Amino acid sequence: MSAMILDGRATAALIKDELGKIVATMKTKPGLGTVLVGDDPGSHSYVGGKHKDCAEVGINSIRIDLPATASVRDVLAAIHDLNSSKECTGYIVQLPVPKGINPNLLLESIDPAKDADGLHPLNLGKLVLGERAPLPCTPRGILELLSRYNLNTSGKEVVVMGRGLTVGRPLGLLLSQKGSDATVTITHTKTIDVISHTKRADIIVAAIGSAHFLRAEMIKPGAVVLDVGITRTDAGLLGDVHPDVAGIASAIAPMPGGVGPMTRAMLLTNVVEMAQSK
């Protein structure tokens, strides 16, 4: 068996084309803001990609970069500016932030109506209740990628590896809601016998940040696997999924080129939807 590749780059390009056509009809262009603190090269690359995406779609962008020496007050001031800005439809605070700054304090300071990442406590609470709110971009991107490839989650056993705020926990909620209707298991560092869970899964989302952790012997033949984890090594960036999984799985979203581009596309989607709702 040779796994079908779930091409996030090609899918994201289609979504951006769709969004560009919508934005072209809008009298007032949406504006995406970013707040980036520190010198993390991955964060700088990722934020740069987001602003490039904005230019391609026709969304205005506002970029605030602060040094690693920035105080909490400095970051909160930037957040306040974007909360007040009429040009900013929605924005994100790029995570991680330098040590000594509480990311939860920053997220809680974002205007929930401008929370383009869907990580404000109010919006996460609405996700729990099943109410309309901006959705976390990576979980939304995962569901959209599956949908675009006609991979149904209804009634499926899904294992989400990792319980992080940006992927694991909100993804579990989204998958178990009506409309997705999956049976979800979330594994983590205290899970006993992880293989007993992954072996029965129809769909596995690996988001633990442990290079090549998920191997072929851990999945059942024909499973769909999405690689979300990223680990920096001397050999470069590695995902959570070992290459040998491709010989067993029916479909794989690789890292890179799978979920990552979808996350960025969903950020744009959130901002356009925010503009449409005004």
Structural summary, described in words:
The N and C termini lie far apart (49 Å). It is globular and about 50 Å long. The chain has 9 helices and 11 strands. It is an alpha/beta fold. α6 crosses α7.
List the helices and strands and how they pair.
Elements: E1 4-5, H1 8-24, E2 31-37, H2 41-57, E3 60-66, H3 72-84, E4 90-93, H4 103-109, H5 121-129, H6 137-148, E5 157-161, H7 168-176, E6 183-187, H8 194-198, E7 203-206, E8 224-227, E9 231-233, E10 236-238, E11 251-253, H9 259-277
Parallel strand pairs: 1-11, 2-3, 2-4, 5-6, 5-7, 7-8, 8-11
Antiparallel strand pairs: 9-10
Helix pairs in contact: 1-9, 2-9, 6-7, 6-9
Order of helices and strands: EHEHEHEHHHEHEHEEEEEH
**Low-confidence parts lasting 5 or more residues at pLDDT below 50?**
none
Our count of helices gives: 9
State mean pLDDT (0 to 100 scale): 95
What's the CATH H-level homologous superfamily of the largest domain?
Answer: NAD(P)-binding Rossmann-like Domain
Radius of gyration: 19 Å
Overall structural class, as computed from helix and strand content, comes to alpha/beta
Neighbour order of strands in the largest sheet: 1-11-8-7-5-6
CA-to-CA gap between the ends? 49 Å
Q: Largest beta sheet, briefly? A: 6 strands, parallel
Shape: globular
Domain Tetrahydrofolate dehydrogenase/cyclohydrolase catalytic: 6-117
Pathway: One-carbon metabolism; tetrahydrofolate interconversion
GO molecular function, one term: methylenetetrahydrofolate dehydrogenase (NADP+) activity
Domain Tetrahydrofolate dehydrogenase/cyclohydrolase NAD(P)-binding: 136-277
